[in-house]
C-alpha cells in the first residue's frame, strides 16, 4: 500500500516543496503515503477523502495537515469544478529532517516545531485561523521563492500553536484487519456509483461472502449494504449542496437506479426529502 510520491522529488534548491495544481477532477494522486508532512488546501472542488482510518466528505476551503506515514487521497466529484472544468489545490510538502534542522539552527522556531511534531493525527483547521491560512497559502501562488520562505515560517507558527482544529484521520494500524478494511473503503470509493455485488467485493479482498459479511459487521458495526447505502446518501448530499444537478441526476450519480426508492431512503436517513434538504441550506 505504501507509495512514495515521485511527484515530490528531494529538491535541494528549496527547503520545502510548494505545489499549486489546476487540473481535471480525475488527475489527482491516488492513495499514497510518504515520510513527509503535507499541508493541503482545497481551493476548488469537493468529493470524498480517505485519510488513515477515516473516509469523509470534503468541500472547497478546507486545509488539512497530514503527518508522515498516514495514507491519504482525495477523490473529486466530476460535477464540481470551476469555469474551466477543473479543480484547484495547493499542497506544501515538508521533510521531517528540515524541521529538525530548523529547530537546531533557529531557536526561535524550536518550540513551534516541537508542538507540530507532537501531533500524530491528521487535522483540519477551523474558524479565524482557517481564514488566515487560506489567505496566506493562496498568496504563496504568486510569490517568489524567498517570499514563500517567509510565508512558510508564518504558516509554521500558525499551525503549530493552533487549537482551532479537529481530527480527520488517524494512523492505520499495521495489521491485516485494518489493511483489509481500508481496501474495502477504497473499493467502495471507486465503485459506489454503480451496483456492487457481495461476491464482487468479497472476492476483491480474498474472502468468501459469509466470512466477508462477518468481518465487515465486526469492524464497522454495520452490514456492508447498509454502509454503502449511507455512503451514497452522504455523497448525494454533497451534490445537492454544491451542484446544480437535478434530484434525478443526483440519484443516478450517487449510485441509485430508482428515484422513488432514493427519495424514500433519503427521507428515512435525513428526515427530509432531497428537495427539502437542498432548500433548507439555500435559505
DSSP, total strands: 9
Helix content: 40-55%
Could you state the order of secondary-structure elements as H and E? EEEEEEEHHEHHEHHHHHHH
Q: Supply the helix-strand structural class.
A: alpha+beta
How do the strands and helices of this protein lay out in sequence?
Layout: E1 17-23, E2 36-44, E3 47-51, E4 54-58, E5 63-66, E6 72-76, E7 87-95, H1 96-105, H2 107-117, E8 122-125, H3 127-139, H4 145-160, E9 165-169, H5 176-191, H6 198-204, H7 209-220, H8 224-242, H9 247-253, H10 259-270, H11 274-282
Helix pairs in contact: 1-2, 2-4, 3-4, 6-7
Structure description:
The chain has helices spanning 96-105, 107-117, 127-139, 145-160, 176-191, 198-204, 209-220, 224-242, 247-253, 259-270, 274-282, and strands at residues 17-23, 36-44, 47-51, 54-58, 63-66, 72-76, 87-95, 122-125, 165-169. It is of the alpha+beta class and 283 residues long. The chain has a six-stranded antiparallel beta sheet. The longest helix is centred in the C-terminal third of the chain and has 19 residues, at 224-242. The protein is globular, with a radius of gyration of 20 Å. Mean pLDDT is 87; it is low at 1-13.
